[in-house]
């Protein structure tokens, strides 16, 4: 379906008559749609952000040696093995990373103690504080990006799947409402761009379906690995809407909805995006 959108966007550009810049984009769109690598990145009517990227960006993601995200994977692995804090422990003192395959599909998860949803960075910091007596990391720090990417990498190739029933249900409803709510000076919802207009251009970007299976992601524009909540902030600011804090309840509930929306696509952390 989304490939069809790309072709439709292409057709629309032909209809309206196009500038030199758009012509370049049309050629790109055709090439993107025909890339045989797409098959692994599409599930039913869902296409990963990968499908909307340029050939160059895909090449970078596909080669673990060229993929700049692996610099953060190394940071994460280093942090996993490093003894820190009063208890004199490292993550590896208690855990075997090989057993973390699939763990990423558990988050965001309902936490009975706080009566809220927690996502993976919340849990990592709780582990550091409670089990290691170590200081928490900043949400967007290289260590946290590295650790979340290292953990998500264990699930690479597995389909995204998250629990949204039971105690999670009311939080899921809030996340869904957030996605559909129009906001900001431009009065746009997430859905206005990513459901209604995927495949079309927004300034110099091709709009993707906003799937979350590649996060944290190495983004060229950021020149570093960035969290999903950073992406939410960017998308809120683009439409002149007040952003929320990383790790806030609003963004954690939104993350839960987005995970469900991406279910079936395969984990591809660390992804590379434009
Ligand atoms: C002193 C031992 C200990 C240390 C150190 C420790 N953990 Fe844990 N961790 C546990 C135990 C026990 C559990 C709960 C049982 C389980 O799920 O394995 C747990 C649970 C977890 C979970 C939830 C797993 C799931 O399946 O939902 C994550 C994620 C996690 N730890 C990550 C880490 C990370 C990252 C570090 C290092 C920053 C760390 N832990 C350090 C003992 C430890
Ligand atoms: C004005 C249009 C617009 C709106 C509204 C918007 N975004 Fe985006 N978003 C973009 C653009 C442009 C990009 C970069 C290209 C792409 O992947 O779509 C992007 C990228 C993303 C990505 C990255 C996808 C990937 O594969 O890495 C996610 C996730 C995302 N947006 C989520 C959201 C959420 C959640 C909202 C609502 C809070 C939202 N967006 C609102 C334009 C928008």
**End-to-end separation:** 23 Å
- Overall structural class, as computed from helix and strand content, comes to mainly alpha
What is the CATH topology classification name of the largest domain? Cytochrome Bc1 Complex, Chain D, domain 2
Average pLDDT taken over every residue: 91
Helical segment count:
11
The main sheet comes to:
3 strands, mixed
The distinct bound ligands, ions and cofactors come out as:
heme C
CATH class descriptor of the largest domain: Mainly Alpha
| Cross-sheet strand order for the largest sheet | 8-7-9
How much of the polypeptide forms β-strand, as a percent range? 5-15%
- Outline type: globular
Q: What is the helix/strand order? A: HHEEHHHEEHHHHEEEEHHE
**CATH H level of the largest domain: which superfamily?**
Cytochrome c-like domain
What is the number of independent domains?
A: 2
What is the name of the CATH architecture of the largest domain?
Orthogonal Bundle
- Let me know the number of strands: 9
Helix content: 40-55%
In angstroms, what is the radius of gyration? 19 Å
């Amino acid at each position: 379906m989304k490939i069809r959108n790309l072709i439709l966007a292409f057709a629309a550009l032909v209809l309206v008559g196009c500038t030199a810049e758009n012509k370049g984009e049309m050629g790109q769109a055709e090439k993107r749609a025909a890339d045989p690598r797409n098959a692994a990145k599409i599930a039913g009517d869902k296409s990963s952000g990968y499908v909307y990227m340029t050939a160059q960006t895909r090449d970078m993601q596909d080669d673990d040696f060229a993929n700049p995200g692996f610099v953060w994977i190394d940071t994460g692995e280093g942090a996993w093995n490093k003894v820190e804090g009063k208890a004199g422990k490292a993550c590896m003192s208690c855990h075997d990373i090989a057993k973390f395959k699939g763990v990423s599909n558990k988050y965001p998860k309902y936490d009975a103690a706080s009566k809220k949803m927690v996502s993976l960075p919340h849990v990592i910091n709780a582990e550091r504080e409670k089990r290691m007596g170590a200081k928490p990391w900043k949400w967007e720090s290289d260590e946290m990006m590295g650790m979340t990417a290292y953990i998500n990498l264990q699930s690479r190739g597995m389909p995204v799947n998250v629990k949204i029933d039971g105690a999670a249900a009311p939080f899921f409803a809030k996340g869904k409402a957030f996605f559909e709510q129009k906001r900001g000076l431009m009065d746009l919802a997430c859905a206005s761009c990513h459901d209604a207009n995927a495949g079309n251009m927004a300034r110099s970007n091709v709009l993707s379906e906003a799937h979350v299976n590649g996060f944290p992601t190495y983004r060229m524009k950021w020149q570093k690995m960035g969290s999903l909540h950073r992406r939410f902030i960017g998308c809120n600011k683009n439409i002149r809407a007040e952003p929320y804090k990383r790790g806030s309840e609003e963004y954690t509930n939104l993350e839960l909805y987005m995970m469900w929306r991406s279910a079936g696509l395969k984990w591809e952390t660390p992804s590379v995006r434009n």
